[in-house]
């Protein structure tokens, strides 16, 4: 069974996003970038399947500008067998519906049995792309998964989903799309020798324009503003009595 | 043009995020209908009382109790031929389903809407809430999930008509096996007026019991940071943050939580924020209204004793 892992290059999650005064858009020039944390978890899960013999091949795919190749190299260094780079022009604002259509065409071409991806990209926080692919291909879907196992006959998988009310367990027929949550696994680091080895692993580049996908924007960003936390005038307290009195005065107890 | 609201039910109980979705829908359309997918028609009767709802459309089938996104989306996509808007509350129930509907209708859905600015323009957070974007849809139909903390929760003074729809329920390619629900007598996290939230600073599952005791004293819900959930102090459905639940209570008490961007994303709109931390420089302390810079164990015990 082939496994595909769509991965995204995003602003480092521990970096504060800033708006560029000139362009009035989020400023990513010189910003520290990283693989989306959920995608690292997806890569790790795919590697485990390969190591257990359940996956025949693991393929990372990423859609973006030239810099995206760095992120694919990271996935190769972690242990993925090969990579597909879908090259876009400049600042094309691709949305989950576009990404879903592009990824669906690759999934069909590769005859993939399982797609493992992040539940959300921590820049746009859309939480949509995996679901959209499942809709386009009519594949079974498991979102927000924190546990994963392949059935003995390799025809289905059992997943635990972290949902608002607790944990839901479902059986998904293959082919399937799963989107992973934080607690599925601890992603490995790429070792130096593996980073070297990754340079000789296959990386195929496909021009987005060569795929028959309409990427006309559906949702346009009109403007952005910084809306982070505002420092509040913290008042120091030093006892339980004092704290409780303050809260009573503020009318919240 | 009319709006359809996807209602999330737990038994007969209407989830608060669905009430927020009704409010958002009334800002978009003068005719708002509700859609209920359920295994028991009786569950839908309460939905008729939500104010602002015109007609409750109910699809009843045994397969809808723990419905798969595949089945739900096909039914919804069919019903959508009569509607311009589909609105649902931001929650795992709708996040699982709405994008699939988007794929079937060839529409780009908009997640986590915080404000309706016009018929096709909305505000939504990016980058863990550090950026607020205004976005405009050019799709013919518009699919939204909306933040329950950003819209009033529609009350119960309506009297909608209920209409059972006969929809074809397709075969599913996934099967429900089990649901482990957290049972708690405490107020529900996303609707509570007060929340006591614990982090890695608690050190162990046993110690996390202090957070629960304090919550009970204050009639508060319990919350947690990712680190506390990862360490097994409490289950995943208590996580507050970018990838957990978003809350905006009157009182949020952060105990032994440092205040990472991803945690702040889930609670920064709380009215009064209290921080108990032995590191007075923790990012969490900067955005607090009240800071008690001390060892949490003595402090929480004193609060339990004095509250
Ligand atoms: C993709 C992604 C998504 C994430 N999503 C979330 C999310 O949804 N929610 C979330 O919370 N996090 C999330 N995180 C994790 C986040 O970045 C932080 O790692 C996490 O919030 C830290 O939890 P914490 O504050 O409990 O632990 P720490 O950062 O370790 O802080 C512990 C605090 O306790 C204090 N402390 C320790 N001992 C005591 C004591 N005895 N008395 C008083 N104070 C004490 C310390 O001073 C410190 O401030 C996410 C991270 C990533 C990468
Ligand atoms: N540009 C991209 N290239 C490849 N995969 C992507 C891209 N953007 C998003 N994805 C995948 O879709 C997941 C969810 O993203 P989103 O729906 O945008 O929150 C990510 O974790 C990735 O697995």
Write the layout of secondary structure elements.
The complex is a heterodimer of chains A (253) and B (307).
Chain A: E1 2-6, E2 9-11, E3 33-35, H1 37-51, E4 57-64, H2 68-78, E5 82-87, H3 96-110, E6 114-118, H4 129-137, E7 140-150, E8 156-163, E9 166-173, E10 176-180, H5 192-198, E11 203-207, E12 219-226, E13 235-236, H6 240-249
Parallel strand pairs in A: 1-4, 1-6, 4-5, 5-11, 6-10, 7-10
Antiparallel strand pairs in A: 2-3, 7-8, 8-9
Chain B: E1 3-6, E2 9-10, E3 13-14, H1 16-26, E4 32-38, E5 55-60, H2 69-79, E6 85-89, H3 92-105, E7 110-113, E8 115-118, E9 121-126, E10 131-137, E11 142-146, E12 161-164, E13 174-181, E14 194-198, H4 205-217, E15 221-224, H5 226-230, E16 251-255, H6 261-264, E17 272-277, H7 283-286, E18 290-293, H8 296-306
Parallel strand pairs in B: 1-4, 1-6, 4-5, 5-12, 6-11, 7-11, 14-15, 14-16, 16-17, 17-18
Antiparallel strand pairs in B: 2-3, 8-9, 9-10
Helix pairs in contact in B: 2-3, 4-8
Residues 6-8, 36, 38-39, 61-64, 96, 99, 117-118, 120-121, 124, 126-130 of chain A line the site of adenosine monophosphate.
Describe the structure.
The complex is a heterodimer of chains A (253) and B (307). Chain A is an alpha/beta fold and 253 residues long. Chain A has one domain (2-250): 3-Layer(aba) Sandwich (Rossmann fold), CATH 3.40.50.620. Chain A is 26% helix and 30% strand. Chain A is built from 6 helices and 13 strands. In chain A, the strands form 2 sheets. Chain A has a 9-stranded mixed beta sheet, with helices on both faces. A two-stranded antiparallel sheet of chain A has the order 2-3. In chain A, helix 2 (68-78) crosses helix 5 and helix 3 (96-110) crosses helix 4. Chain A starts with a strand and ends with a helix. The mean pLDDT of chain A is 95. Chain B has 307 residues and is of the alpha/beta class. Chain B has 8 helices and 18 strands. In chain B, the strands form 4 sheets. A 7-stranded parallel beta sheet of chain B has the order 7-11-6-1-4-5-12. Chain B has a 5-stranded parallel beta sheet with strand order 15-14-16-17-18. A 3-stranded antiparallel beta sheet of chain B has the order 8-9-10, with no helix packed on it. Chain B is globular and about 60 Å long. The mean pLDDT of chain B is 96. Chains A and B meet through helix 3, helix 4, strand 7, strand 8 and strand 9 of A and helix 2, helix 3, strand 7, strand 9 and strand 10 of B. The structure holds flavin-adenine dinucleotide and adenosine monophosphate (AMP). Flavin-adenine dinucleotide sits between chains B (199-201, 225-228, 239-244, 256-258, 260, 262-263, 266, 277-279, 282, 295-297) and A (13, 37, 122).
């Amino acid at each position: 069974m082939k496994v595909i892992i769509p991965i995204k290059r995003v602003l480092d999650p521990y970096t504060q996003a800033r708006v560029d005064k000139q362009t009035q858009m989020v400023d990513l020039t010189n910003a520290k970038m990283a693989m989306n944390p959920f995608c690292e978890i997806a890569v790790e899960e795919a590697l485990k399947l390969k190591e257990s013999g359940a996956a025949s091949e693991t393929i990372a795919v990423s859609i973006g500008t030239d810099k995206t190749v760095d992120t694919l190299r990271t996935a190769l260094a972690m242990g993925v067998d090969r990579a597909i780079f879908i090259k876009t022009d400049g600042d094309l604002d691709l949305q989950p519906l576009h990404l879903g259509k592009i990824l669906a065409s690759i999934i069909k071409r590769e005859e993939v049995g399982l797609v493992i991806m992040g539940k959300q990209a921590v820049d746009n926080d859309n939480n949509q792309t995996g679901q959209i692919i499942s809709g386009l291909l009519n594949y079974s879907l498991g979102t927000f998964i924190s546990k994963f196992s392949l059935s003995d006959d390799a025809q289905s998988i059992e997943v635990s989903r972290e949902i608002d009310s607790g944990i839901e367990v479902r059986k998904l027929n293959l082919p399937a799309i799963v989107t992973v949550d934080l607690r599925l696994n601890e992603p490995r680091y790429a070792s130096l020798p593996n980073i070297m080895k990754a340079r000789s692993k296959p990386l195929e580049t496909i021009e987005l324009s060569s795929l028959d996908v309409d990427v006309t924007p559906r949702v346009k960003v009109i403007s952005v503003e910084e809306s982070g936390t505002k420092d509040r005038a913290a008042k120091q307290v030093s006892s339980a009595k004092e704290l409780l009195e303050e809260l009573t005065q503020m009318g919240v107890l | 043009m009319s709006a359809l609201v996807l209602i999330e039910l737990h038994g007969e109980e209407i989830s608060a995020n669905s009430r927020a979705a009704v409010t958002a829908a009334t800002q978009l359309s003068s005719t708002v209908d509700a859609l209920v997918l359920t295994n028991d028609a009786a569950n839908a009767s309460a939905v008729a009382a939500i104010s602002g709802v015109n007609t409750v459309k109910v699809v009843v089938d045994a397969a809808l109790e723990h419905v798969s996104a595949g089945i739900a989306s096909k039914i919804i996509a069919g019903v959508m031929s009569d509607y311009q808007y589909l609105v649902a509350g931001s929650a795992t129930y709708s996040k699982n389903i709405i994008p699939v509907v988007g794929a079937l209708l060839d529409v780009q859905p908009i997640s986590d809407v915080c404000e309706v600015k016009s018929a096709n323009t909305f505000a939504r957070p990016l980058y863990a809430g550090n950026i607020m974007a205004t976005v405009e849809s050019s799709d013919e139909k518009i699919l939204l999930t909306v933040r329950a903390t950003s819209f009033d929760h529609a009350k119960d003074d309506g009297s909608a008509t209920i209409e059972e729809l006969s929809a074809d329920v397709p075969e599913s390619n996934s099967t429900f096996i089990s649901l482990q629900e957290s049972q708690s007598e405490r107020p529900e996290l996303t609707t509570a007026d007060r929340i006591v939230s614990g982090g890695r600073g608690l050190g162990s599952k046993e110690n996390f019991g202090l957070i629960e005791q304090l919550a009970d004293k204050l009639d508060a819900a319990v919350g947690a940071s990712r680190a506390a959930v990862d360490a097994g102090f409490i289950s995943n459905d208590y996580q507050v943050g970018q990838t957990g639940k978003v809350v905006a209570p009157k009182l949020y008490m952060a105990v032994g939580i440092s205040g990472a961007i991803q945690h702040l994303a889930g609670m920064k709109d709380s009215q009064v924020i209290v921080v108990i931390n032995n590191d007075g420089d923790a990012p969490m302390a900067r955005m607090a209204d009240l800071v008690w810079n001390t060892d949490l164990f003595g402090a929480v015990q004193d609060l339990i004793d004095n509250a």
